[in-house]
Records
---
Amino acid sequence: MKINTKCIQSGYQPKNGEARILPIWQSTTFKYDSSTEMGMLFDLEKSGYFYSRLQNPTCDAVAAKICDLEGGIAAMLTSSGQAANFIALFNICPTGSHIVASSAIYGGTFNLLGVTMKKMGIDVTFVDPDADEKTLEKAFRPETRAVFAESIANPALTVLDFDKFVRLAHSHGVPLVVDNTFPTPINCRPFEFGVDIVTHSTTKYMDGHAMTVGGVIVDSGNFDFVAHADKYPGLCTPDDSYHGITYTEKFGKLAFIQKATAQMMRDLGSIQSPQNAFLLNIGLETLALRMQRHCENAKKVAEFLSAHPKVNWVNYPGIPDSPYYEIAQKYMPNGTCGVVSFGVQGGREAATLFMDSLRLAAIVTHVADARTCILHPASTTHRQLTDEQLNECKTPADLLRLSVGIEDADDIIADLSQALEFL
Ligand SMILES: *Cc1c(COP(=O)(O)O)cnc(C)c1O
């Protein structure tokens, strides 16, 4: 099936006489005829549902759809994008380990890695994703267990050089984990370029309507954890909390997601609710259609802003002016995302005046949904960061992040145009 078809058809396939539309299995628990049978589920000897903190059929169907869109072998929904990134990394990076992460990442993830995980004894080295390989090499340590980056960074809009990062991670015997929230699998499928694990905040384009917070982890099944067994005892040696099961022995290529479900989700409990998964699934059905329109509109908006005398700079990887245009053409030739960043003349104050003058574009702490919205990261999502840190993560203090919606492009441009007149 082509990706547009998968958006509609993948995941839930009703059998004869069953509901045509994915049902919401609104149940915390599942009934069994014998305690022996349920015991086998607890021992991971049999697969099946018993408690929705671990698995639920509605959530599994939606995870299966996203897994198919990404071309992975297993996936797990989480309560949020934050939970997805935390669980994906914590699943293989215990206390005492180290992560190499791109500095051009979402502010929430920057804090998760740089503050909270650091407190848990997991060290991180942030690197400039555009640095050359020799410089990036220096960030690795014997205890490095993963490399993390975003395919298109939010809000910096840097596009990841997949070949470079895959080479770096694999030459050090660790997997590359990529947050693919912005391009979505419609525009970019990182597994095709050698990435091992993909995460998403499904809150963004996948849901697409700003209805539900959620996340997902997808595994390609390609990283050979057994070949690096000394680095990944959590996957390759017996788990005491499951009577000595060794995930890689018992589940082979499915080990990563099995451990994330059976151990991480069991203990941390950041599940997506079946209701939210149902809503997410409706969003996914139109993902291909919406991404196309988001990208068309964003390109028109970026071209308009680029030509405007009151706009200092524009960054959109889908136009030739962008330093990331060529790399975007290589990895996502059909489109990038609907987010455009720019700076207006007059810096911080002018940015505020401009935002307050908009009528159609709303000021919200959100990005990547059907409605055009705008945010000033330095005074909101990135408020905790110093100016130096802002520059480090390629989000300068004057950056405005415009999330171009799927309204008519003419109306979006007319709104921007009238607001620029106030400057
Ligand atoms: C929003 C976002 C997150 C965090 O996701 P939540 O669903 O808000 O927890 C992580 N990564 C990227 C790229 C994001 O845009």
Note: The chain is about 40% helix and 15% strand.
---
Amino acid sequence: MTSLSLYQLLLVLCAALTHALNFCPLMGPSWPAATGLANDPTVKAALQSIRTTLQTAITAGNFSGDSLSLQIFDTGCSDPLLSLSYTATDINTTIGVNKVDENTVFRIGSTSKLFTMLMLLIEDGFGSLNDPVSKYIPEIEAVVVDMQRNSTKSNNGIDFVKWNEVTVGELASHLAGIPRDYGMLDLTEEVPMLEGLGFPKLVSAQVPPCGVPNVCSRKQFFNGLLQGHPIFPTSTTPIYSNAAFQVMGYVVEALAGENFQTVLEKRIINPLKLTHTFYTTPNIKLGVIPSAQGEHFWNFAMGDETPAGGIYSSANDMAIVGRALLNSSLLPAATTRRWMRPLTHTSSLGYAVGAPWEIISFGNERPIDLYTKSGDIGTYSSVLALDPDHGVGFTVLGAGAKTHESLALAADLISASLLPALEAAAKNQTNCHFAGTYALSSLNSSITIITDAGPGLVVSSWVNNGTNMFNSYMALSGITDPSQLSIRLYPTGLESPGQLSFRAVIPPPLGTGIGPFTSPCISWVTVDGSVYGNMGTDEFLFKVDNIGNAVSISPRVLRTSYPKTS
Ligand SMILES: *[C@@H]1O[C@H](CO)[C@@H](O)[C@H](O)[C@H]1NC(C)=O
Ligand SMILES: *[C@@H]1O[C@H](CO)[C@@H](O)[C@H](O)[C@H]1NC(C)=O
Ligand SMILES: *[C@@H]1O[C@H](CO)[C@@H](O)[C@H](O)[C@H]1NC(C)=O
Ligand SMILES: *[C@@H]1O[C@H](CO)[C@@H](O)[C@H](O)[C@H]1NC(C)=O
Ligand SMILES: *[C@@H]1O[C@H](CO)[C@@H](O)[C@H](O)[C@H]1NC(C)=O
Ligand SMILES: *[C@@H]1O[C@H](CO)[C@@H](O)[C@H](O)[C@H]1NC(C)=O
Ligand SMILES: *[C@@H]1O[C@H](CO)[C@@H](O)[C@H](O)[C@H]1NC(C)=O
């Protein structure tokens, strides 16, 4: 694969989007995920191209000379698909590492929130998410009781957060509408400058007594947070909140009956054998320390706000965490599936929010969602991005002057090559495993399966016991023009040993529509829409051998199966 210019990429994406509109696939993978990625020619070429692109960008100064450590990983293998580190010239090698590698420790900032949510799910699954947070936090319960008794407060919707309405799940998904921070980052840290800028002088009672450098105690934090104004009513619009994750940290402690650090170690660090992940500031010799301000941001303590942004980790450890999330090794698979879903849109259609996933959609032949979390803390930044459809993820950790911008660029460059390659590899492998003819010659029954330019496995011909089933499905779908009939099979993810389930999308003739209501892309509504004797006319099952090659197909509504003959 050659590396694409941004302009070429745009053309490819536009062409791809047009495709997606024509075929209207189901949301989710078009083909079973490719395996053996490290040896797949398409993926290998993409990884090589990513390495070259990143190295070129480093040389060209696109990363502002920031130190980076990144890994691309998959669930099939514990070795990374790609591991690349870059050591900036401007680091303090007297106190930190000389050379950045996959074990170098960075601060991960807000990516810490993912650890906090994972801990909550390990402790209690989804049990607490619909509960009011007051159930777990006595300070909040006291405010709720006070508000019930005080009509001046309960009638004032602008000055007082309705804490009785705030659930744990809303805190987890930035939907609580509560303040972003308390103490930390308050501009009173910069008092002389603010007064010079025309802001009034504050009396001391108005200045938070804590933040930086003195972290807020639990008491100070709640005193301040519970006086903060609401930003929006609950579940109105996502408003990013670090304070919400400090409260989440206390919820985890209440559920576990142990302090956050102990739970982190017991539930994540020890089971995954993470050797370079820390709750408290580790030995500075393990870290990369940018000369300018690096030491300050390395040492800067977050106290009880650590669950929102204080954790330290390495690219190697973050890849292990990413793999554990993708392969659901710390949670039941059903919990992971429920967790990896959007909970709210943002005003950008390609960017949704989960708990606390930042879900970024890439247009390919279909939208591919990356479940990501990013973080920044001073001179340090991090991103973890997971692609559950392909069982692949990547992490980038950075340190330096413009590390947020550097990581965003690296993540875009990686995604632009990696995602199309993973789709191509999945399609190619699926074609090898499933395409061909399946037949019962004694009955004049056969199905031919191919892949083409569009998504899914395509049924290109189908005769059952002498009846051309294309004619039958046209009759059922009300299609009269044979060129309008398309039967595309998508993997459902349901499987038994040696068996994989697929569903067909058999779209009615696709018009264009004059608006969203008349849009023809409603495949999801049509699935299982036609059943015969309680069996969907769109249900297909493949039997596969132990290396994944199909040995038979069953269009299940026909209560028959045809062996693969070529
Ligand atoms: C497609 O898969 C086949 C069989 O695994 C392999 O030989 C071929 O190189 C692949 N083609 C591409 C473009 O990856
Ligand atoms: C890198 O920087 C060069 C020079 O400023 C610019 O021309 C190029 O487009 C940048 N590349 C990327 C990938 O941003
Ligand atoms: C009710 O709340 C208001 C606003 O905070 C406060 O001024 C008032 O003293 C409170 N009343 C009682 C009875 O606590
Ligand atoms: C490295 O850090 C030490 C300790 O703070 C400091 O004395 C020294 O000047 C720093 N060196 C560089 C190159 O920043
Ligand atoms: C899942 O990933 C974790 C972390 O890399 C690994 O320890 C574990 O063995 C994997 N489990 C499975 C079932 O693949
Ligand atoms: C195949 O079609 C023939 C003729 O219509 C019919 O008699 C026979 O029962 C059919 N066989 C099966 C297995 O459906
Ligand atoms: C099998 O059935 C198809 C569809 O009805 C028909 O076109 C074809 O001639 C038949 N083949 C044989 C060998 O009977």
Note: The chain has three domains: 3-116+256-428, 125-253, 435-563.
---
Amino acid sequence: MLSSPFVLLAIAALAYKLWQAFYISNDKNSKVSSKLKALERSHETGGALSNMVQADGAGSWPPKATHGAGWPSELLPFHEIYLEMIPLLSSSNPSLDDAVNIERRDQFRALMSKKLNERVDMARVQALVSSIEAGNWSGCSRQAYNGFYCCIGVLRHSYRWAIIPLVKVVQEERIIEFPAQLETTWRHLQRTFGVDSDSGSNTSNVLLNFNQKGERAYKINLEISELVTSTEEAFFRMFYDVEVMAYPMYQKMVAAYISYEQGKKGECLKHMEDINSQLRELLRVFYQNLVESRVAKGVWLSYCQSFQAWGAGRMINGEYVEFDGVSGSHNLCFMVIDAFLGMKSYMNDQNLGRYIPQNQRNLISTFRRNSFFDRLHGDEDKEISDQFGKIIQHLKVFRSAHRARVMPYLAQPAPERMMMTAGKSFNEPGNDDAHLKVLDNMLVSRLKDTIAMASKLLS
Ligand code: HEM
Ligand SMILES: *[C@@H]1O[C@H](CO)[C@@H](O)[C@H](O)[C@H]1NC(C)=O
Ligand SMILES: CC(=O)N[C@H]1CO[C@H](CO)[C@@H](O)[C@@H]1O
């Protein structure tokens, strides 16, 4: 039946149609993107954006990532092992008994090590990660490697904590011996992405955990409760969604830089207006989702934040160096907006180097260097200046809202642990209120810097 000439003809015709459709749509896409690229490349800021998107993002932003699918076979065991370990990681009744917790921790780590030893062919993995670090990507696509980066990041966090909600005895460990499979791979990955922390970052653990359909691959808690599942989902999705909204805004910023420099003030004003409406939509992600009905205070600290913390380190050149965990301040979009205003960075250089990949840092510093905020000329640029004022107003509102909303999340009781936030690893026992005050001061000081930007505009 299949060999009948009619069927073959029909198949050939269909194949031709499909090929044509693909060819044409491809052609159209490549025309649009080459136009965009020409514009982008014509300016330093556009060059930095397109660099980041092409390299780190595998051509998209947020970055493309695949988890297991399309991976070289030598990397697959890592993916499978993480998925097998999740059910053992989290539990609905954290114990307050140190001995029980020590035993649970040791069993978890021993099992993960055993699986890694038995199933990972380190010689092949080593060959692959070193050739990628040397710039040879023929053995693995960028999107597969992005997903792999996330996988090793979450494997390390799960090995570090071993018990979710995290517990005191594990917090007290300051130096962790990681299995070689999670250590050598991580060093290569960190050099390839251009960051140097032992812990994961917002990019590795959160952003690259989503595929292009917006599905999150490596979860933390399975079947603890409906509330934990929905809180985990809503919380992490915010960080992906803001980046989805941010990409067109980055492009408008590039367009604003270009038109301002070319003296096309009318065009620039139009871009500034677009940036403001994009920013308003982007912030809506935060306002609508960081609410009790989506992210529940009673479970957030223990079940979601726990995993992203770090608070451990190692000896480097004879000195103990400690790393923090994942923080909201790692968010690319807020750093880019600050840079567009020419505002000084919230994070210091050391932390930028630890947690923010090289191409993201390059985008931020290029945007900051090119900022025309300080170059506005009085009345002549009044309308553009007003648009800057609106951006600052959005940021002021965001920063006050963020401060008001996040503090109660951090102040939740968690008797199984000592005070610690993901971003800042205070983990000495002591006065919790004093610790919260330190964090609050950081947020207040950033709010003050933002308000100072507004008064700069009026003077
Ligand atoms: C329960 C949820 C959250 C808590 C408890 C929290 C807590 C904090 C804390 C304590 C800081 C200051 C310390 C540090 O730099 O790490 C901070 C900074 C920051 N967070 Fe959050 N955060 C939460 C959610 C978010 C979300 C959803 C976003 C954005 C989508 C966000 C964006 C930021 C930014 C941009 C900073 C840097 C400071 C600034 O630019 O003003 N945070 N967060
Ligand atoms: C690049 O890597 C592939 C596989 O990962 C390898 O087969 C090939 O020989 C490498 N090419 C060069 C030029 O090193
Ligand atoms: C992408 C991203 O920014 N994710 C992290 C940001 O910070 C929060 C708050 O600490 C983390 O929990 C997210 O994982």
Note: The two ends are 83 Å apart (CA to CA).
---
Amino acid sequence: MSVLETTRELLALDGGEKVISEPIPAFSGGPGADSIDDAEIAAITEVLRSKALFRHNPNSQVRAFERDACEVLGVQNGLMVNSGTSGLVCALFGLGIGPGDEVIVPAYTYIATAAAVVAVGAVPIIAEIDTSLGLDPVDVEQKITPRTKAIIPVYMQGVPGRIYDLLDVAKRHGLKVVEDCAQCIGGKYFGKMVGTLGDVGEWSFNYFKVLTCGEGGLVFTNDYEVFERACFASDPALPMWMKDQTGQTTWHTPPFSANCYRPSEIMGAMARVQLRKLEGILTHTRSLKAAFLEEIREGGTPRGFVLQHVDDPEGDCGVSAAIICHSSEMAKRYSEALRAEGLSCGTAHNAGFPDRHIYRYWDSVLEKASPHTTGYPWNDPHYLEQGGDVFYSPEMCPQSLDILNRALRFGFNMRMTTHHARLMARAITKVDRLLP
Ligand SMILES: *Cc1c(COP(=O)(O)O)cnc(C)c1O
């Protein structure tokens, strides 16, 4: 056998040696869940022993968490709630958004973003994403009508999108901006914490997020009135509790009643511990993504794909990477070849199940399924009066479907080392080099 033959590189698909022979460590939840240790157990145990589980108490863990989070974020007001979705609902109530209003959401986000808009009686308008996998500022501007009140940019998989461009569109049209940072806790944009650049920000602490306390959320803002209204929206009895606790009797805006999204002290105690782990978590995930990107760069200019566009790589949480192939056909072939190399991935669009992160599968929204027989928010008189007539269809965002069809996504977790991240990238550069 000649030297040339023995060293000739073959795709694993063609019988060559796999790049990844040992499985890459996996974890079914998020980095926060994977980082749970005795500290969370001790904090929760202490709350249980105290038998003080209600947030309105003099030693409130929830209140302490809100203060800690505000310090990390560099923001004035924070309210903990029982989920990220509740946080978005409170943010929208905080801004006074409701019947007759339209709110622009991206075609690629968890359905909760659109659901929160429906929950306050407003109409979600679905806009295209671009190669940042976040809102496309050009399409956002085209979707603005006289009824548009706000935009909700979403930073999927820890990557802050085109925030300055979106803020610019919002400013020119007098719109509010709610930053959905459910998947981007600790993400930064040119040095500033995401969620603090628009009018209101939101975090989620469900099992899959950067930090978790089982379920939970945070809504935060520098605007005191928005905060106060978010508080009223989160707990109809809160004005009474605040009066008792702090002696506060005057409000900037009149209290109103809505929902109860109050978190327990168990959640607050766990969230505090998790927040202290944020820097460590992000240092690790960012090191994984940096190693991955370095290895991709060393592979030279890719033939068949471009990397997801990231405005500010330093602010990226580093929990994921995406490549966008030149065609959906190539994405399928790359995905097959990568699986043979030991790297499992699907195209974002054809992962084999209806992905609720793609608007096409938000059946309840596309069908305008109302919580009530009046058909609100779409048939709300305030909406109809203003000529509101949004049209939804599974094909309405072709640019987003095209990009998602061509995108392959890879996640980084706390169990991986930079060696694993490099192997993942090596599998990709090998497939890119050798796939005919
Ligand atoms: C997880 C998530 C939410 C909602 O969070 P929950 O805590 O599950 O209610 C909202 N938006 C996005 C983009 C999310 O990923």
Note: The radius of gyration is 23 Å.
